[in-house]
Amino acid sequence: MKVLITGGAGYIGSFMVKSLLDEGHEVTVIDNLERGHREAVDARAKFFKTDIRSIDEMEKIFVEYEFEAIIHFAGLISVEESTRNPQLYEEVNVDGSRNLFSTAIKHGVKRFIFSSTAAVYGNPEIVPIPENHAKNPTSPYGRTKLRVEEILSELREKDPEISFSCLRYFNASGAALDGSMGEAHEPETHIIPLAIRAVKESKSFNLYGTDYDTPDGTCLRDYIHILDLIEAHKLALKKITDEKGGYFYNVGTGIGISNLEVVEMVEKVSGLKMKIEEADRRSGDADRLIADATKITNELGFNPKYSDLNTIAESAWKWHSK
Question: Count of CB atoms within 10 A of residue 8's CB?
Fold first, then answer.
């Protein structure tokens, strides 16, 4: 299949590019490299330094190349940054996505996989969280992701030939099992790389909140290994290829892992002790954010193989140690 991947120089996008190439697909990457890394893009892929906000630049690519599907990762992902600069998130995540979809549809591309987020749910009323849970995002980031989901639904209402799947990630984590590829955000906001950085550099690690309504007092999150997350995308791509429709799936394990358990596992795989400083809760952090993964399991046959905490932490340690 001829696949266009936006944001293919990012963490998840670069893994997706390699996986599809390994399976014999023809892959083209669009990334403006503001947050991505050119060296992360597999050399076998066609690459264009292009911003999805530029209709003119994208038009040139769609005129020259034919695509059968688009996997859309390009976007901004920091909750904290989105509260400081909501307009930027509106421009990149919403306006950029709208530009991408309209240009693609104009050129006959009608299959889309969208990189969404559990942040569309907000603070959950039901845990584990099912896909039909109320959507009450608490940040501009979450609101922009929900708006893109709505845009795809609106486009399909106008044209039933459009087929899409929105994958709501919980916590993407881990690295290639041999440590050859991994996560590199700047600034980094994810707990596992932050814990690894702290233990490597002998710096203190802030544990935000120890009074949550959980077994050890720290909040519970659902972690999905990057390799399992990529498999979910491939299953979703097959789904929208075989059956036209609009599909929404949580991508998680249904298992909650506490922040303290993450810290202890990083200490175990590194063989180093971490200096932990207890800090106040961060505003808006829920006690538990855990996926109900029943739907993706039943409909797509999704079966995570690498999402145990030991494999996640061990692979991340290998990557960050290099």
Answer: 31
Question: Of the candidates 49, 43, 35, 98, which has an alpha carbon nearest to the alpha carbon of residue 72?
Answer: 98
Q: Map residue 322 onto helix, strand or coil.
A: coil
Beta carbons within 8 Å of 150's beta carbon, 6+ residues apart:
none
Q: DSSP string of 208-254?
A: E-S-SSSTTSSPEE-EEEHHHHHHHHHHHHHHHHHS-SEEEEEES-S
Cα gap 287→212, rounded to integer Å: 6
DSSP classification of residue 139 = S
Is 141 tagged catalytic? yes
Could you state, in chain order, the average pLDDT of each consecutive group of 10 residues for the chain (322 residues)?
98 98 98 96 98 97 97 94 96 98 98 97 96 96 97 98 98 97 86 94 94 95 98 98 98 97 97 94 86 98 98 97 88
Strands (DSSP E) contained in the chain are: 2-6, 26-31, 46-49, 69-72, 111-117, 163-169, 171-173, 204-208, 220-221, 223-225, 246-251, 257-258, 275-279, 288-289
CB of 282 within 8 A of CB of 158?
A: no
For tokens 């421009």, name the residue: 91
Looking up tokens 């949580």 gives 250
CA contacts within 13 A on the Cβ side of 31: 27
Residue of 11, 89, 141, 223 marked catalytic: 141
Measure the CA–CA gap between 75 and 11, rounded to whole angstroms: 12
Domains parsed from the chain with CATH numbers? 2-172+222-251 (3.40.50.720), 174-221+254-321 (3.90.25.10)
CA triple 90-193-41, angle to 5 deg: 65
Task: Please tell me the pTM assigned to this model.
Answer: 0.96
